[in-house]
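Notebook B, p. 112. Complex prediction, attempt 2.
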Amino acid sequence: EVQLVESGGGLVQPGGSLRLSCAASGFTFSSYWMHWVRQAPGKGLVWVSRINTDGSSTNYADSVKGRFTISRDNAKNTLYLQMNSLRAEDTAVYYCARDPHGRNWFDPWGQGTLVTVSS
Amino acid sequence: DIQMTQSPSSLSASVGDRVTITCRASQSIGTFLNWYQQKPGKAPNLLIYAASSLQSGVPSRFSGSGFGTDFTLIISSLQPEDFASYYCQQSYSTPLTFGGGTKVEIK
């Protein structure tokens, strides 16, 4: 069974840092592009970042560029999102999602991890 | 950035109704359009990709159509488990963008 499990969310003060992880299982992780998508409480979906199969190519939404870094460890079947200089507006549930061969759609999604930025 | 506009933002419907949700892109995106269903407290689930291709395991009452800037998601006969929010998403170019969502509620 294909499974994505996020972890690492929590409460952090403005200006702080957090690293999210997404553990993948049930498929050949190294063959798939991966994404992070977030959803603020009660709001819609917002794409955050993507990474290609070997980590050599990454893209970011303007709202997180320069503050967030996406990476992956194919040996550990794990996707990461390093989040620095966090702001209140970064408060959201963060989902990781698999992308079939760089098609830029998302299937499946993890269950999400909540990041709350507040003092 | 490509802006995605969904309508309506919410609708009330009864079991058995035919439901139509539309999505408009701010520029032509060919068939690079996908649809997701999201139930409260759950992750989104892919329904339709490439405008009209039904994802494996998704009931055939869901269908998608469109090309260029105008797209439609149709639920042919609404079932109790279909009450949820629906989002369109363009996969034409980064930043990848979503519509604002359509909440389908019980009438």
